[in-house]
Design goal:
5-stranded antiparallel β-sheet, 5 strands
């Protein structure tokens, strides 16, 4: 069944607020193979003019997975998770975030379109990351939905 564009764009996502902890940043840096000491050592971070451990570039994506039922919106749109592929993700950074920051994320669906006669549908979700109401980053995720009912 095709994704209803109006329903998708009208979905309301609950805002998510997360406290960024040093241990979590260190774990993330290690898991992605980051070797720059500013991401794991507070002294190295401060020597590089950071106020604390900076958030590694792709860390924000993992935050959205902490929301209760992070893929519930797919169910709401009638999308079978078995037909979903990760298309791409991008980040637009406005300012740095650090350990100790309280960040808020607000998701929304900004576009839905089809290709190949509807056999592939693309769902574009954007999240704004803010700190004290200032934009820190914009995250964009493209999901590809294989639609076996689409025209061949």
């Amino acid at each position: 069944m095709p994704i209803d564009v109006d329903t998708a764009k009208a979905l309301q996502f609950d805002p998510l607020t997360v406290d960024v902890e040093r241990g979590r940043l260190r774990f993330f840096a290690k898991s992605i193979g980051e070797t720059d000491p500013v991401y794991v050592d507070v002294d190295a971070a401060r020597a590089a003019d950071h106020r604390d451990l900076p958030v590694p570039p792709t860390f924000f994506f993992s935050l959205s997975l902490e929301a209760p039922g992070p893929f519930r919106y797919l169910d709401q749109l009638g999308i079978d998770l078995r037909h979903v592929l990760h298309g791409e993700q991008s980040f637009a950074y406005q300012r740095l975030a650090y350990a100790g920051d309280r960040l808020s994320l607000q998701d929304r669906i900004v576009d839905v379109f089809a290709k190949r006669g509807g056999t592939l549908e693309f769902l574009i979700k954007q999240a704004d990351v803010t700190r004290d109401d200032e934009l820190v980053a914009e995250l964009r995720t493209t999901l590809v939905v294989r639609n076996p009912e689409g025209a061949q």
